[in-house]
Amino acid sequence: MADAQVLSFTEDLKAAIEEIENHGGRVVHRFSKRAFTALLPAHIAASLEHSTTKELSSLTPAEQLLIGAWRDYRERAAEPESGPRTAELVQSRNPTSDPMLAEQQRRLQAWLDALGYAPTELHTVMHGSVTAGLVFVSGPMNDLAFNNEQYRSEVAKFFKGADFLATTEPRASISFAYDNPGGHQ
């Protein structure tokens, strides 16, 4: 049976992660200490003891916002695509087929050569924990303000990319953990 990404809730994150990993699954998105998605065999989700697919009633506004954005992304992902699939786009855009990327690669290589830096194959991969920040900038005026609907829409777009990274090569075991989303509530 195929793996499915399941939205889950828990009061004991450590025990829930351990149980999921013992069943051959892994956490993909950790929204908080109580809410996450896990990639696991579909028939396993209902039998877990330390997590449930039933939403907790005490979720914070920040947790609700992240979960809502993830659900928005998943609903859009279920809709038929009109253009090429993401994997096809990634494969078709490379320095050999795209002059803009070829120029960017040429300029980067010239800069690295000027520094005397010669990257190896090891420099094209990430090892260990890697941290990245996603910053939303808004201002005090209405036309500069980033409302919750816009925020949720942009976070849903991020989830699309994150899911691509986390599921394209399962052996990489990539997962994402989120902190308080910038005070948006």
Notes on the structure:
The chain has 185 residues and is α+β, with helices and mostly antiparallel strands. The chain has a domain at 3-81 and 130-177. Helix content is 39%, strand content 11%. The protein contains five helices and four strands. It has a four-stranded mixed beta sheet, with helices on both faces. Helix 2 packs across helix 5 (148-168). The longest helix is centred in the last third of the chain and has 21 residues, at 148-168. The model has no long low-confidence stretch (mean pLDDT 79).
Secondary-structure map with pairings?
Elements: E1 3-9, H1 13-22, E2 26-30, E3 35-41, H2 61-78, H3 86-92, H4 99-115, H5 148-168, E4 176-177
Parallel strand pairs: 2-4
Antiparallel strand pairs: 1-3, 2-3
Helix pairs in contact: 2-5
Quick structural overview:
This protein has 185 residues and is an alpha+beta fold. It has five helices and four strands. It starts with a strand and ends in an 8-residue tail after the last strand.
